[in-house]
Amino acid sequence: MVSETPTSFLALSFLTRHPNGTCSSFVDMELFLHFSLIPSFLIILVLSFLQRRERHRQREDTSYLLGNHFGIIIPLDFVGTFSNRWSYGLAFGATANKVMFLFSEGYQPLQVPQWAQAFVLLIGGIEVGLSHFPFFACLSSEFQLLSSILGFSYSLIWFAVTILHIIQCPHGQLLGRYETLVLYWPSLMCLVFLLGRFLHMFVKSLRVRLGWDLQTEEKPFLEAHQAKHVKQLLRKAPPLQREKSWFQSRIYEWDPCFQFPSRMIGTTVLAFICLYLFIVIEFCMFLHVRDQLDVFEDQLESYIAFRNETGTLTSVVLQVKELISVTKGAWVVTILPASLTCVSYLFHILACYRKHIKRLWAGDKHFLPLKFHNPSSSASVVAIARYSGWQIAYILWGYLIVHVMQSLCGVVLMYSLVLPIVHNQGLELLQRLGIGVLTIAIVLGLMILQVWIATSFFLQQKMDAGDRQKPLALNNRKAFHNFNYFLFFYNVLLGLGACLSRLLISCVLGSWLIARIDRTILQNGYEGADMGFGAWIGMLYVDHYHTNPVLVSFCHILITGHRERRQQQAVTYWYLNQSTGPRISARSRTRWLLLQTLINNPKLLMCRKSKPGHSSRDFTQILLACSES
Question: Is the pLDDT score of 210 beyond 90?
Fold first, then answer.
């Protein structure tokens, strides 16, 4: 029997059950998830039949009987897709409720031992992926007329079942009215968008089929923003700098030569919706715990009234009630700051992705730890599969940890500043606050005094008046040694406070930045133990190697040239279109282009290999003379 974690209780209580215990509904969303695999398999089978295989099998292979049908269909190109980004993103958003169900480990169709729970969750992830596979496959299919009909029908089924589930049981026991709608409206909006998208695809493909519109070109190998980036690199003069607005200079500046891939857009949209659901579920759990604490307070009061206590026990009970009240208030107040912190992290991660990937395009790896300059290829391939899921999990757990930390800070603030004033202890508070500030000021003053003495008496004068600081050369050595000796014993005590401050700062920053997968919270030399940061780096390298605009532009030139040569060879009477002038051999043309390249780039002469029996010195001198002329 698998033990239920608190998160699994969340899912079982809010995502799978009917919110209203007295509500009777014949729509079971978990059961519908299982039955949705039937139309999903049918749609996958139809699209696979239409998909042509590029390589034909031999006659000895049994799959030869299938011809060139039943090719492999892909839901989404996770590396190089820049079109339909928001359609894919909202298709991911439609899976948010099921992703939260898996995240809470509520998927347990089989009773298995604890060690086998990972396999059950793997099966659950595959089932959720198969049930939502038609959304992505229909968006990316080449046969848009049929795929739009299939995608619209499948989206309509999910939309109708979800609406029916909300109508049957709209209310709940914790949030009250419209609790089910609060949980399911983001997925409904995503399904509505998909319905409109598939309807638009159907109308557009139908107009093309009827001949009213021209057939759209196939997906370009070189995207428009990649071509703009390469053109910007080839400009001799830098572009004119326009005056930036306040938003562009301080928050974010759009770059027309850059686009986020569909994977990043989908991850961000799904993370937003999952974060919203997580906050709602957390608030529901808070209401449940608050009710239990209210019952506990009533029991304490009843116990005191029954025992007729008026001494120490009464004061303890009052302190416990005050602690419960302060904790509940701090938890509610910090919901908004914790939410805004994680939302800002999502936007900041997108900005860091653009900054890091553009640095890699420029060949700059200094922002990476040394051990990540040449990551493993296999680890990078696995990292791009892990990144999206891990990013969502890091955001959700990061919100919970940040919320707990902010609540603790709120409780400390209440007990240190607010409650003493409420209890008419303001003068004592000011006295303790003044003594604490004075103590810290004296300690900091002594530390600054040490630096000032070292600068004034134990360093030699500047070698030049323009130097920013004195050179690291000792002066007054005897006084310096006495200075170190007498401060040795004091610095032992001072080091204790420095050590505790180091621990406190590390805990606060580590908890605050736990959701930031784009930066490691471990010290230098231990970054390899941060699996989330390793997934981020591996994902960056895969995108760098497969979507680098310069590399893609070079491959585009090669493919275009090869395609033009093949078309030219396919024409039977191609020579009729040639000029009547003298013909130039391909070898002579290549040599002429080589000579022109070497004249424009004299440094390449040092890299050329000289053939045996040929003197490259005379040829080099001729090229240098041509370049100077």
Answer: no
Question: Tokens representing 341?
Answer: 């912190």
Cβ(514)–Cβ(401) below 8 Å? yes
Q: Each residue of 517-542: pLDDT tens digit?
A: 888 888 888 888 889 899 999 999 99
DSSP code per residue over 7-51: HHHHHIIIIIS-SSTT---S--HHHHHHHTHHHHHHHHHHHHHHS
Number of neighbouring beta carbons within 10 Å of residue 19: 24
Tell me which residue of 270, 264, 342 sits closest to 100, measured CA to CA. 270
One-letter amino acid of 250: R
pLDDT band for 19, please (50, 70, 90 cuts).
very low
**Backbone region of residue 178 per phi and psi (left: phi > 0; alpha: psi in -120 to 50; beta: other values):** left
| Cα 169 to Cα 2, 66, 95, 192, distances in angstroms | 29, 48, 21, 21
| pLDDT for residue 134 | 92
Say if residue 173's pLDDT is above 80: no
| Token reading at 498 | 């420095």
Our measurement of the distance from residue 374's CA atom to the centroid of its chain's CA atoms, rounded to an integer in Å, reads: 22
Contact 63, 118 (CB under 8 A): no
Helix 179-209 vs helix 85-93: angle between axes, to the nearest 10 degrees? Answer: 150
∠ Cα 516 226 218 (to 5°): 110
Would you state the structure tokens that stand for residue 356, as one six-digit string? 């890091």
From the list 369, 101, 63, 410, the residue with the least C-alpha distance to 419 is 410
Q: Which residues, at least 6 apart from 391, have a Cβ–Cβ distance to it below 8 Å?
A: 267, 271, 349, 517
Q: What percent of the chain has pLDDT over 90?
A: 22
Task: Report residue 368 CA to chain centroid gap.
Answer: 17
Task: Look up residue 295 and give its amino acid.
Answer: V
Of 467-471, 517-521, 577-581, the one with minimum mean pLDDT is: 577-581
How many C-beta neighbours within 10 Å does residue 538 have?
Answer: 24
Question: Nearest Cα to 453, choosing from 441, 442, 443, 445?
Answer: 445
The tokens for 503 are: 């621990």
Residues 6+ apart with CB under 8 A from 88: 76, 81, 136, 139, 262, 265, 266
As a whole number of angstroms, the distance between CA 195 and CA 173 comes to 32
Residue 239 reports pLDDT greater than 80: no
Instruction: Enter the tokens of residue 534.
Output: 């390793």
